[in-house]
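Please check these two lines:
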Amino acid sequence: MNSPVDGKKRIASLIVFGLTLLLSIPALADGAKKPAIVLVHGAFADGSSWAKVIPILQAKGYNVTAVQNPLTSFADDVAATKRALAQQEGPVILVGHSWAGVVITEAGMDPKVLGLVYVAAFAPDQGEAVGDLGKAYPPPPALAAPIVDKEGFLSLSTEAVVKHFASDLPASEAQVVAATQGPISGSAFGAQVSGVAWKTKPSWYIVSKLDSAIAPDEERFFAKRMKATTTELNASHVSMLSQPKAVAAVIMDAAAKAPVAGTSASH
């Protein structure tokens, strides 16, 4: 027969076990609530443009997917992004760089998408062709002399990438960006979105103050129009490579706040 002392020890052990279990539940719940992150690259790039941001997000417990856009047409890029969204089990923060801002504006209509993050990206409204968006701003040096092949695909010279597109990266890194770039069909720049996700979902925008591919003032216009939470970085067009910690911080801010913001009136 157990003594009263043994009984008290057993009760104390059960209490400790119960408290430990209760304390662990919120942590598990918080982890389960984290939205997935889907990253969409722009023109003259591929999924490796997110290579420095991905490990930062993964280290914080986020499930991350980088889309590989074919860059063959607007419709093809939207379809690739939608396939990535379909693979996610829960809610998503959708992130787009440069040209991919157009893609996420359309694909972001997906009900899984809680919020949008634009990284030095186009953010068109209904009826706006991408190729017309920058006409009110100085011509971007990075795009002054694109290489156009016989099938109408555009790419950038290594010199243009090093001097303008990725000017704040070491030359050796910028040369890798040039070597891994994905040519984009010129027809894509005539695309128009049929849905505008930023009108109904909370948005974040990262302006690159040293951008030579999209005018910084054009980026500010997009951010202001969508009423985005805006961050400005002293970065070239590829801030996700030159300042990955700062870009990851904005994405994580969106992941933390979009579920709450999404419950309020759309902006």
